[in-house]
Specification:
Blueprint (H helix, E strand, L loop, with lengths): L2 H8 L3 H9 L7 E2 L5 E2 L2 H15 L4 H12 L6 H33 L1
Antiparallel strand pairs: 1-2
Length: 111
């Protein structure tokens, strides 16, 4: 499939797909005789994984790390546990900050 079809199937902008390729998050696609990029279902799955991670506010470095582990499943998974624990703590801190903001807004609203 061409890049436009991949973008449509994954609800992702073409420029973002090219950026992820440039960053090494998406593998280089095959090329057609007229030099168009040709994507397959593995690109769809990987791009959906990347987008899901981004929706969880993971950095590209964190995503790259997870993809590397996914590509080489014999690696030690203890680093994944540490990465996820750090991300969980970050989310908990963000939740606390948002709850404090909510309290302030409710105070303002009641005045």
């Amino acid at each position: 499939m061409l890049i436009g079809a991949l973008a449509q199937k994954t609800d992702c902008e073409v420029v973002t797909i090219r950026y992820y390729e440039k960053e090494g998050l998406l593998p280089e696609p095959a090329r057609s005789p007229n030099n168009y990029r040709l994507y397959d279902t593995s690109h769809i799955e990987r791009l959906r994984f990347i987008r899901h991670c981004r929706s969880l506010d993971m950095t590209l470095a964190e995503i790259r790390f997870l993809l590397d582990l996914q590509d080489r499943p014999t690696q030690d998974c203890s680093e994944v546990a540490a990465l996820l624990e750090a991300h969980i703590l970050e989310v908990e801190n963000r939740i606390q900050t948002l709850l404090e903001l909510k309290t302030h807004l409710l105070d303002l609203q009641s005045n």
